[in-house]
Amino acid sequence: MTKTNGKDQGNLLIQSRGNGKTAGAATYVVEVASKLGFNDAPGIALLGQMPSIGVCGAREVRVSSLYEITGRLSHSQMDILGRGLLCDPITQEFRLDLSASSSAFLIGPHWRVEVWFRPQVTDPVGESVCKAVADMGLPEPDGVRTGTAYQFVGRITQSQIEKVVAKLLANPVIHRTKVAQL
Hints:
This protein is of the alpha+beta class. It contains four helices and nine strands; from the N terminus they run ββββαβαββαβαβ.
């Protein structure tokens, strides 16, 4: 089941597709997460906060950064961005293919929540990534939007996930959310 702010949606993330804005432009979503064995401090902190709002049952929370990049970039150029700009190769992994198997990205049953800035909200990190891509000598993207993915493992219900989203993760004025049970 996938929901976006209460409405059913199709696929959770876009892997690569034309966007209609600029002929030949593609949209990629890059996900960056801590490698297994490295401390996921934001996940540990969120797991510690959940009992304060009455949500128990999660045994692990993993947090990853999301980058939605639109422009005339090839898959190999996106790989260069992932390795050279968006992740620390010592402590983090990235993926372009969101179905790719990796220990850094949960494969078993879990809840996944994505929190993105709404389109009308300024995204300063996205703007910085745009400039950094151009500084690397690659084609400057048409746009970069950033978000955060939260993955919850354990005995946790949809109503508990919705409570975590509302109280700890997102402000509906500036964020859009996607919730999926995988």
